[in-house]
Amino acid sequence: MLxxxxxxxxxxxxxxxxxxxxxxxxxxxxxxEKLAAGIYNYLPLGYKVLKKIDNIIREEMNxxxxxxxxxxxxxxxxxxxxxxxxxxxxxxxxxxxxxxxKFVLGPSHEETxxxxxxxxxxxxxxxxxxxxxxxxxxxxxxxAKSGILRGREFGMKDMYSFHVSEKDxxxxxxxxxxAYFNVFxxxxxxxxxxxxxGGAFSDKFSHEFSVVTPYGEDxxxxxxKCGTAQNLEIAEGKVADPDEPEExxxxxxxxxxxxxxxxxxxxxxxxxxxxKILKTxxxxxxxxxxxxxxxxxxxxxSEVKLExxxxxxxxxxxxxxxKKAGLVQGYISPVNVSGNINISFIADxxxxxxxxxxxxxxxxxxxxxxxxxxxxxxxxxxxxxxxVKSGFQCLKCGxxxxxxxxxxxxxxxxxGTKFSKVFNLSxxxxxxxxxxxxxxxxxxxxxxxxxxxxxxxxxEKGVIWPISVAPYHVxxxxxxxxxEVNQNxxxxxxxxxxxxxxxxxxxxxxxxxxxxxxxxxxxxPLRLVISNRTLKKDSVEWKAxxxxxxxxxxxxxxxxxxxxxxxxx
Length: 569
Ligand code: ATP
Ligand code: MG
Hints:
Elements: H1 21-28, E1 32-36, E2 39-42, H2 44-63, E3 67-68, E4 74-76, H3 77-83, H4 85-88, E5 94-98, E6 101-105, H5 110-118, E7 129-138, E8 153-163, H6 166-186, E9 191-195, E10 206-212, E11 218-223, E12 229-231, E13 253-256, H7 263-270, E14 278-285, E15 289-296, H8 303-310, E16 314-316, H9 319-325, E17 343-348, E18 357-363, E19 366-371, E20 381-383, E21 401-416, H10 418-422, E22 426-428, E23 434-436, E24 438-444, H11 446-456, E25 458-459, E26 462-463, E27 474-478, H12 483-498, E28 503-506, H13 512-522, E29 526-530, H14 532-536, E30 539-544, E31 551-554, H15 555-566
Parallel strand pairs: 3-7, 15-17, 17-20, 27-28, 27-29
Antiparallel strand pairs: 1-2, 4-6, 5-6, 7-8, 8-24, 9-10, 10-21, 11-12, 11-21, 13-19, 14-15, 14-16, 18-19, 21-24, 22-23, 25-26, 29-30, 30-31
Helix pairs in contact: 1-11, 2-6, 2-11
């Protein structure tokens, strides 16, 4: 491709409203162009990358027996009413109507693929089956500020599998997991797999694939030794006990105090470390009432773990509610709380190995010192409620855990029979019995994946495309507008095309600075510069985008070396 003819050019500055790296670099380099928040045009360079990503995805999905289909974007609202997701996903769904017919712009395709499959699957002989599509999805995302990482209109590969049993689904699920790793590896990305995202009533039948980058929307906890990765909200880890094994239990003391309500205020007022404060946070739990959650002062509570443990929705109790219940905000503790107050307590394991805590005395302006579990208060219910932080130890290998930001590029779910029951997708088993089909679903955001490659692979000058998804492999740049240089460059360009090498030739009459900067910004894997200087040596200047140094290479060796270069990954 001649750069002078290419639709979509580089621009000097990124758009002022582009906040994320992917939006900045891809727009500046002429790959995408925003139409509105979360809605993008893909220009030839961007679309080429997307198609390469799609092909990688296709090859890997085909390899696990996926058959490609293409389902409609426009869904009659009735199918969404059948699953109730018209209400559950209210706010995210784009709805439209024509006359008195109402439609949903598909944010996902379980509601279409399940009745579709029900037309064809009748017997156990028709199973297992796996179909996928690469399609545009529509979601009214509240935060559409991360460029193509979070679009309102975005691309997704969604695959759906159908099985006679959970066991058969489990086996297939493992195959797809491996196929997902293959996709991300081939796109040059290192991914972590994370079990379930947590949240109320999470059934843990899902996995997320995440790429660590400095600007991801998610926080994950990773053990860099054994590679275990967990979602922050439900991550497990061990926190070290304060190192005072010999400490003796001292007599309980009630003291007058003037202090603020925070743990920091409390520790300061008594001149003790925060780990010596017994912290109680009170929650209002659906159908249960007030629940005091007790934890070491220097640690935080994971509300998702708490919700999962209680299996109830909950929220921190308001000051009003505390007052009504007879509790004294800032001084609440499980020690000598009045029997008239309707509150129960639960604690994190972290309070078990600390002696002589300081805590509130359930009276304004009074604290207890030297509070000890078992002697001064008891807790019936202990569980892990810790919000894990960098520095906690990995439960598997004992090494230090790290909190990292990440981007979720894929998500796989065991749906079970949830959708097949709604749409009567069932099969007749060998014994003649009618049974619901067991389903799995598997998503990859192909447009998000494109953005993620940029987030993970760039420098201050521009994108650094991995060979596998680069829009072109080679960028020819001429320096100096003279006849010999131009003729040699034209010849090289034609030779490369004849060898089926994907090449972009910057044939513009621009300054060397502009051309070299543009080449770095666009980020093709290999740059070949032809100038008077190189021609004197019958050479080109060869520079890989991901390497610092350039070298001269004889013109006659270039094609052979390009072929080696391209095939190296
Ligand atoms: P997220 O938690 O990031 O919103 P999700 O759990 O809603 O993702 P799924 O519904 O499982 O995502 O979709 C499958 C995949 O589609 C995700 O793993 C992600 O790669 C991609 N994806 C989801 N929402 C968007 C979006 N708004 N823009 C671009 N890609 C998206
Ligand atoms: Mg989402």
